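Quick log. Single chain, no ligands specified.
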Amino acid sequence: MARRIVLDVIRDAAGSGVAGPESAKPVAFAAAGGLLLLAVAARSSNPETPVPATPESSSAPTSTAHNVPKVSNPFDAAKYEQNPYALLSDAQATEVIKAVRHRQDQGLVAPLCTWYDDRDNSVGLGLLPGQGGLAGAYTNADSESGYFEAVPDVNGYPAVSAGTTDARKRGGCQIAVGSKDDETFTASVLLDKSFPGYNDPCALAAKTAAAAVTTLKAGA
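-> predicted structure:
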């Protein structure tokens, strides 16, 4: 049965999952504070919600003081909003997850694209225009439910992990990266226990986000 990673406080607003990897469908949900995060569907029996980590130094605040980091070099990412598949080239998708297929689905805000390997491990990307950028995530920083963490910058762009369920120890991870002060994109990962990076899914989420930044920079 496909499982969905839900990163918002209105999980019940979505429809039920559909069995089988081909029918697993990413969905976007609205979270408190206006930030929308991707929900990536893939094969697994454990419901979960993700997080991230990147190897670079961070300009993001380390506390939950709502000191939202600014995006110093914003992207004009409009051409990718309706075509997130273009955020990863075929070569990048192969490098990131050895992708053998992908699917694009309509989220509540903009389309979402998910790439799968031959065992249905997945990475997903999508842009979230007009949702308040990272400020929406920071409004949830002091919530007693779920989790929030400012993480190292992704190739110089501020990023956070946040969600209502922490699935970092179960192969799930998701980060939101500020592409502009009022826009983010999300990189989500859902891995099976057999995947070599299962115990550190945030590393793959960071790698996916970094590849998308490379694409966005080249297309700016």
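Confidence is low (pLDDT under 50) at residues 1-64.
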